[in-house]
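Per-record layout

source: Aliikangiella maris
name: DNA-3-methyladenine glycosylase II
length: 201
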Amino acid sequence: MKMTPYALNKARKALLACEFLGPTVKQHGKCLIKLNDVDPFDTLIVSIISQQLSVKAADTIEQRVRALVGKRFVPGKLLNYAHQQLRDCGLSNRKVEYIQGIAQAVKSRQLNFKALENASDQEVIEQLTALRGVGQWTAEMFMIFSLHRMDIFSPLDVGLQRGMKILFGDQAENLSAMETLAERWQPYRSVASWYLWRIVD
């Protein structure tokens, strides 16, 4: 199921009935995941930049890179700049390699975003994690924010771990327990994740 304004509203109404998450849903109202004008390549590059950084640090570096290569991340433009020029924006050596590797994969059509739209969740994870620098968490975030899939839950996400701990206490003791607890939100786990992030914020 793909996100639409109607589907997000239906999910919100369903999640309101959850005794654990319902109060948070009521407090924050509509789910505000952006549905329009989402460029999959741009989304993936931003997720690489953001890895293991605070939101503020990631935003600063992202804006420096955009100032260098242009407002929108495009494979050809990222490949036109020397490694050191991207390093000077604050990116680590590895992240420059990852970003340019993904740009090359898209340019050579090794990675086809259009084909990912109709692939299964597992196929998306397998194709994306075959790229250097893309792990399961990055692939899951991509499915939520770029492919707009309604039922993705990423127990590897630190924010979700904290949100689950606040809601469920010791019951959310490990990744397997989190996944079991999140089953109550199927088929709307992506939307439930958005509300869990609001708890932490």
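summary: The mean pLDDT is 95. The two ends are 27 Å apart (CA to CA).
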